Amino acid sequence: MTAETHSKPASAAGPVRYTTVAIILHWLIAAALIFQVILGWRADDGPKGAETFALFQLHKSIGITILVLSVARLLWKFTHKSPPAPAGQPTWEKLAASAVHVGFYVIMIGLPLTGWIIASTSRINIPTVLYGAIPWPHIPGLPELAAGAKDAWNDFGHIGHSVLVKFTYVLLALHLGAVAKHQILDRDEVFGHMAAGAKPGLKEPRLWLAAAGFAAVVAAGYLYTPAKAKAPQPAPAESSADDLALPDETPAAAAPVATTAGPAPQATPAESTEAPVDSALKDPVAWAVQKGSHLDFDLAWADTPIHGTFSRWTADILFSPEALDRSKLTVSVDLASAGTGDGQRDESLQGPDFFNTASSPKAIFTATKFRKTAEGRFVADGTLDLRGVKKPLSLPFSLKIDGDTAKARGVTTLDRTAFGVGQGEWASTDQIPGKIKVSFALTAKKK
Ligand code: HEM
Ligand code: HEM
């Protein structure tokens, strides 16, 4: 195959420079790779907040781009002629140059592959969306592996990635050293192979352009701040009234709750006269939870929201707004029924690092104290027993009783760390914030 027509003049020995496509790919990949190394340093060292998460998203995006460009460049290289080594170059130099170039292809493809392995075997399954727009799959087969094999692959990815990163530094030093030697000492045409029209010597403007470009890319790597880096959305410290609005509330019922501060009035018999008293509710009533009721949890992994649902739970409810002092509530949640839409993640949730369902399969919330905070709004003060730890928990909820049917909705936040949900590396709130939002919406009928 001959060189491209515009990479003339092709002497008998071969073209005087790389083809235009090869040159564009070389500089594009070189810039991307140097920027990528700086991003990698920043992301690896940074505090594990939203900014670091955004840096990693870009790191993954650029890394995959480098992979695609490098594969294209390799295919191009196999099908197009490269310029020959300068006449009289010693064999060891030719071999060294080839070795460095082969080494570069190893890291240009190996770094993204090992990075992709890390991303595909993360315990917390974070999707890769290139540049926030193009969904990129995990490596097929890896996310489905059993936890042990998955961890082994993850370790391999980490070790491979960091070894290749070190290899990159060596290659780059050799490569730049060689360019300098050819340009300044040997004063041959090698720089001109990759910078069309360049003459040997330090006066060559393209050399300074390359050096300035190098410095600019390093600076850009440090200066880049992710536009969308906002603090992870903290779960609300207190449930807001809006969170508690019933879906089918009438406009009157949805009117803002009286915001008077201070202790909420208790539902005393005297007070209860202001609302029509349902004589059937003078005593606590047993309620049976109906189908369609749900118990959910929400958390954030930096910018990635994770929504989960418990599909199996039961509630023993003995409740009447007119007999709060005698009302009782016990909710029993089968922790193994936690689903977040990702089989591997759900398996991890049940494991010893999180719920540890093998030794404490259920979370139990018991409340024997209820307060009325406003019309149709109550707080159940009780105890949550989760993962063998008992802590007080107040659950605010809104309630609407219509004949035999009651609809209740509530939301609260839990500090998972108080219950030991998240052990080892997950104990810190760097990656998964401590606050977890728990919400429910239920319909119950009088038994
Ligand atoms: C991380 C950044 C870089 C990578 C990965 C890289 C990679 C490569 C590779 C693989 C080749 C062989 C030609 C090919 O296969 O297309 C090459 C050639 C070349 N590179 Fe780089 N390069 C980088 C940065 C630079 C920089 C910053 C300069 C100049 C200051 C430079 C100058 C050259 C020159 C002059 C050649 C031609 C060598 C020859 O014909 O023997 N490279 N580079
Ligand atoms: C040519 C492409 C790439 C380069 C040059 C590169 C470079 C780096 C560098 C310099 C670090 C800092 C770690 C250290 O100093 O040891 C790093 C870390 C990391 N990179 Fe990349 N990377 C590339 C591609 C990717 C891709 C495609 C992904 C994921 C899809 C990825 C994921 C990661 C992760 C997860 C870390 C943290 C490493 C750890 O904790 O061991 N990288 N990368």
From TrEMBL:
Reported cofactor(s): heme b
Transmembrane annotation, as ranges: 20-41, 53-76, 96-119, 207-224
Cytoplasm keyword on record: no
Matches recorded under Pfam families: Ni_hydr_CYTB, YceI
Residue ranges of domain Lipid/polyisoprenoid-binding YceI-like in the record: 286-445
Ranges of Low complexity composition bias in the record: 256-270
One annotated Gene Ontology cellular component of this protein: plasma membrane
GO BP terms, alphabetized: respiratory electron transport chain
Record's bilayer topology term: Multi-pass membrane protein
Residue ranges of the region described as Disordered: 256-278
Subcellular location: Cell membrane
InterPro entries with a match to the protein in the record: Cyt_b561_bac/Ni-Hgenase, Cytochrome_b561_oxidase, Di-haem_cyt_TM, Lipid/polyisoprenoid-bd_YceI, TTHA0802/YceI-like_sf
UniProt keyword terms in alphabetical order: Cell membrane, Electron transport, Heme, Iron, Membrane, Metal-binding, Transmembrane, Transmembrane helix, Transport
Record GO terms (molecular function): electron transfer activity; heme binding; metal ion binding
Homology family: Belongs to the cytochrome b561 family.
Listed name of the protein: Cytochrome B
Organism: Caulobacter radicis
